[in-house]
Specification:
By secondary structure, the protein is mostly helical. Helices cover 75% and strands 0% of the residues. Helix 6 crosses helix 17, helix 13 packs across helix 14 and helix 17 packs across helix 19. The chain binds tryptophan. The site of tryptophan has 15 residues, from helix 2, helix 3, helix 11 and helix 15.
């Protein structure tokens, strides 16, 4: 296959577009990050702010990225050439390639933890929980987590395995790789999370858990929590770094860009809420700390299934499906540099994938692991894991989102934009488009700037 064929590849149908995009959005962000951030930031009020960010910032930026991608059918850097934009705007794409790597450094690390949990569950490491008391079980699960991620060899090995699996799928290409995997497995994940929720809701602490998740208590909300909610909205919907530009470039001509964005945002939020519903009842039933941080998922889910028939089987299935969600999200991260290297640097797909995964492993392994050479380096009070997470989610993605909304709101050709959003006149959505442009010009950038300045302390409410 030559390069020009490669970049002209598209998803095969509207349904495939929906699942691939949802496959990018749904990932460790919903199952791992959302619950622990809600826990750390005090619950319901954070959830509410998060949804406001999705609605007023996330969806408009998603539509903008889809427009840039589909109208140019190019990678995140090359797209701006086709749009005849000044070279400055290409920095969105370059920053995106860099953000993809930054995110992959820690994301593939956590994916490695999830993979290792599939193995642990199959080996029966959690079978003994059934005979322990609640408190003993909670302590046991916590210490298993600390041992699993604190090892000096095995977390490295699992991270390498995670990156290798992603590389193999992505070498297969857009249709045969990304599309096939997402379409079959996402519905299964959805069903399994619902089973988790049903079980969690039968626990003693269910009401307390739901209260924590759904009842806003604004006294617990800090300015930095608002920036984190915004960062999470970007992270969750894979925005601000060109993933949705790149995926948009594989959309079919018939996809309705507004409807796709709304459907993806809605389904993705539902998965996050379901994950929260599965986890917080456990936290309150077993007397755990909601603000337990990145280990929360791993310290709670084994307890959900610990005392029910076929519990271990369900646990294995849960971690398998979470690995799949993590994998489909990683595909979309890795695809950004890969598409860039193929189209802008004339590399073959294989070479682009090898180069990208090579960088992820080399820098990721060296800098992210506490047991690595740079394990004890602390910059601005953060180790490398937190630093890459903070820089990408709270700084780079929102800046990318701001630039994208300014570009589409002010610079892009408005006829071209309405033409693309209405699928060349076949959709009757003039009113919607006008509303969208206004939101994108005034509301989205204003919110981004205010939240940002507030969080770094330049303005104070
Ligand atoms: N959205 C994914 C998740 O929630 C992660 C992800 C995939 C991502 N592609 C991205 C985050 C691009 C930011 C940018 O797990």
């Amino acid at each position: 296959m030559n390069h020009s064929n490669n970049k002209r590849e598209t998803f095969s149908s509207g349904l495939a577009v929906f699942f691939a995009t949802l496959g990018s959005a749904v990932g460790l962000g919903n199952i791992w990050k959302f619950p622990y951030m809600v826990g750390e930031n005090g619950g319901g009020a954070f959830v509410l702010i998060y949804f406001i960010c999705v609605l007023l910032v996330g969806i408009p930026v998603a539509v903008s990225e889809f427009y840039i991608g589909r109208s140019t059918r190019k990678n995140a850097v090359g797209a701006f050439d086709v749009l005849k934009a000044k070279p400055f705007w290409k920095s969105i794409g370059y920053m995106g390639v860099l953000s993809a790597l930054f995110i992959m450094f820690f994301y593939s690390n956590v994916a490695g933890w999830v993979f290792s949990y599939v193995f642990k569950a199959i080996k029966g490491d959690f079978l003994s929980l059934a005979s322990l008391s609640m408190e003993e079980a909670a302590v046991n699960v916590s210490s298993q987590f600390d041992i699993a991620v604190g090892g000096s060899v095995s977390p490295f090995v699992w991270q390498v395995i995670a990156v290798a699996i992603v590389s193999i799928i992505i070498i297969a290409g857009v249709k045969k790789g990304i599309e096939r995997i997402t379409k079959t497995l996402l519905p299964l994940l959805f069903i399994l999370i619902i089973i988790c929720c049903i079980r969690a809701l039968t626990l003693e602490g269910a009401a307390q858990g739901l209260n924590f998740l759904f009842r806003p208590d604004f006294s617990k909300l800090s300015a930095s929590a608002v920036l984190s909610a915004l960062g999470l909205a970007f992270f969750k919907l894979s925005l601000g770094m060109g993933t949705m530009i790149t995926y948009g470039s594989y959309f079919t001509e018939k996809d309705n860009l507004f409807a796709t964005s709304a459907r993806v945002a809605l389904s993705d939020s539902l998965v996050s809420l379901l994950a929260g519903t599965a986890i917080f009842p456990v936290v309150f039933t077993f007397g755990m700390e909601p603000g337990a941080g990145p280990g929360l998922l791993f310290k709670t889910i084994p307890l959900v299934f610990s005392k029910i028939p076929f519990g271990n089987l369900l646990l294995v299935a849960f971690f398998i499906l979470t690995s799949i969600a993590a994998t489909t999200a990683m595909l979309s991260l890795v695809e950004v540099p890969v598409a860039f290297f193929i189209e802008e640097k004339n590399m073959s797909r294989n070479k682009a994938v090898l180069l990208t995964s090579g960088m992820i492993l080399l820098i990721g392994l060296l800098t992210v692991h506490p047991k690595s050479v740079f394990g004890n380096v602390v910059i601005a009070g953060k180790g490398f894991f937190d630093l890459f997470d903070y820089l990408s989610s709270n700084i780079m993605l929102p800046i990318g989102g701001l630039l994208i909304s300014i570009f589409v709101g002010y610079i892009a050709n408005k006829n071209d934009l309405s033409n693309e959003l209405s699928n060349h006149g076949t959709l009757d959505n003039k009113g919607m488009t006008k509303f969208f442009i206004n939101v994108l010009r005034y509301l989205t950038p204003a919110l981004l700037v205010i939240v940002f300045l507030n969080s770094i302390g330049i303005i104070k409410f």
